């Protein structure tokens, strides 16, 4: 098979978007087994495309002050964020990769990515939405606009949900004590949600995050399981420590406020706002003790922690409706934006990922305002095609 055949480009595109038919899968599998070169190329494309998987409680910033800081940093000159079909998309990085990735954008069928004049896909900020999976695997869609209602999370056990809030502290327990199983709250890309656990602990879940927790905690401990990013306000209970368990890290607290983020590439970030926590690698006994105003960064590859003093606002104001970037790389910033605005990001240049930007902006603004500001300061260009953003120097 031809390495750069347009049909192969279509098969690769469909595989990355989950649209492969059984026949197409057979064709792609045959091509991959045809040579090692094909398999290496396929892995390069997957790596470069980077298709991401799907209330003021602390130091709320004044809207106008924050916006002024953002405008000052970004300067007042604006550049247009180009919205156009990728008919003129240029070659990128390595030539073989350039040819196939070029096909990714250039060979779209007409009914997949029509001209902007025919249909413009609007990119909107995130909003309250989530999926609740109860112990019996019943799925409840939570769209953030529902009026107050009750949801049965276990036989005879009811909780309250209204708008962007889900509350277990007011649950009505059955007359006869029963073993309560786990519930799971999943927040997709472009979503956010607030959860109040049975002990009164508040949890703010950011986009592309998941929390697994018991309907009611037992008498010895309070343990939840997190993937993604969440801000916790833990109700103090000296007799029952509170644990946040992630894939590699466990955080132990008794009553405190902190933010945990597993989205950063190669890192797990824990930021302590108030109180005291102990954090450790799972399977180990030695804990790292944190104080307010500290960031503990766990390196997944090295298996080690680095603790340093930080301005915690940078890490927690997302729940108050802001983005705060302080000398962050474009790769980190665009990763954050991709989750909140539910877009896919592709860097045309590896060096562009390492450029840094500082800015303060409203989380619910149109994405074009943020991209214009980055363009003004850093000098990169953004091309929007549907819900895909291309970054070029």
From TrEMBL:
<keyword id="KW-0472">Membrane</keyword>
<dbReference type="GO" id="GO:0016989">
    <property type="term" value="F:sigma factor antagonist activity"/>
</dbReference>
<feature type="transmembrane region" description="Helical">
    <location>
        <begin position="86"/>
        <end position="106"/>
    </location>
</feature>
<dbReference type="InterPro" id="IPR032508">
    <property type="entry name" value="FecR_C"/>
</dbReference>
<feature type="domain" description="Protein FecR C-terminal">
    <location>
        <begin position="322"/>
        <end position="391"/>
    </location>
</feature>
<keyword id="KW-0812">Transmembrane</keyword>
<feature type="domain" description="FecR protein">
    <location>
        <begin position="184"/>
        <end position="277"/>
    </location>
</feature>
<dbReference type="Pfam" id="PF16344">
    <property type="entry name" value="FecR_C"/>
</dbReference>
<protein>
    <submittedName>
        <fullName>DUF4974 domain-containing protein</fullName>
    </submittedName>
</protein>
<dbReference type="InterPro" id="IPR006860">
    <property type="entry name" value="FecR"/>
</dbReference>
<dbReference type="Pfam" id="PF04773">
    <property type="entry name" value="FecR"/>
</dbReference>
<keyword id="KW-1133">Transmembrane helix</keyword>
<dbReference type="InterPro" id="IPR012373">
    <property type="entry name" value="Ferrdict_sens_TM"/>
</dbReference>
């Amino acid at each position: 098979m031809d390495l750069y055949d347009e049909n192969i480009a279509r098969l690769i595109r469909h595989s990355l978007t989950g649209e492969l038919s059984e026949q197409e899968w057979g064709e792609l599998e045959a091509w991959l087994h045809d040579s090692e070169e094909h398999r290496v190329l396929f892995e390069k494309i997957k790596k470069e495309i980077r298709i991401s998987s799907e209330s003021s409680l602390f130091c709320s910033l004044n809207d106008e002050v924050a916006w002024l800081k953002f405008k000052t940093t970004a300067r007042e000159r604006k550049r247009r964020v180009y919205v156009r079909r990728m008919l003129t998309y240029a070659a990128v990085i390595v030539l073989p990769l350039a040819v196939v990735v070029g096909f990714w954008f250039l060979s779209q069928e007409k009914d997949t990515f029509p001209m902007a004049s025919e249909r413009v896909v609007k990119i909107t900020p995130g909003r309250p939405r989530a999926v609740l999976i109860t112990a019996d695997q019943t799925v409840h869609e939570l769209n953030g606009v529902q009026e107050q209602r009750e949801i049965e999370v276990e036989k005879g056990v009811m909780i309250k949900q209204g708008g962007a809030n889900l509350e277990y502290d007011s649950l009505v327990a059955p007359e006869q004590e029963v073993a309560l199983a786990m519930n799971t709250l999943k927040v997709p890309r472009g979503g956010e949600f607030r959860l109040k656990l049975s002990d009164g602990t508040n949890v703010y879940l950011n986009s592309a995050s998941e929390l697994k927790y018991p309907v009611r905690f037992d008498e010895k401990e309070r343990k939840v399981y997190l993937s993604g990013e969440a801000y916790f306000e833990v109700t103090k209970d000296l007799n029952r420590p509170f644990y946040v368990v992630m894939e590699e890290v466990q955080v132990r607290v008794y009553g405190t406020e902190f933010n945990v983020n597993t989205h950063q590439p190669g890192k797990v970030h824990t930021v302590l706002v108030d109180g005291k926590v102990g954090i450790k690698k799972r399977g180990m006994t030695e804990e790292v003790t944190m104080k307010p105003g500290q960031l503990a960064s766990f390196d997944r590859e090295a298996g080690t922690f680095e603790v340093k003093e930080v301005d915690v606002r940078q890490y927690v104001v997302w729940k108050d409706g802001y983005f705060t970037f302080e000398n962050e790389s474009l790769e980190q910033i665009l990763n954050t934006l991709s989750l909140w605005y539910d877009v896919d990001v592709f860097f045309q240049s590896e060096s562009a990922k390492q450029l840094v930007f500082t800015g303060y902006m409203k989380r619910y603004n149109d994405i074009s305002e943020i991209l214009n500001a980055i363009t003004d300061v850093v000098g990169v260009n953004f091309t929007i095609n549907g819900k895909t953003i291309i970054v070029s120097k």
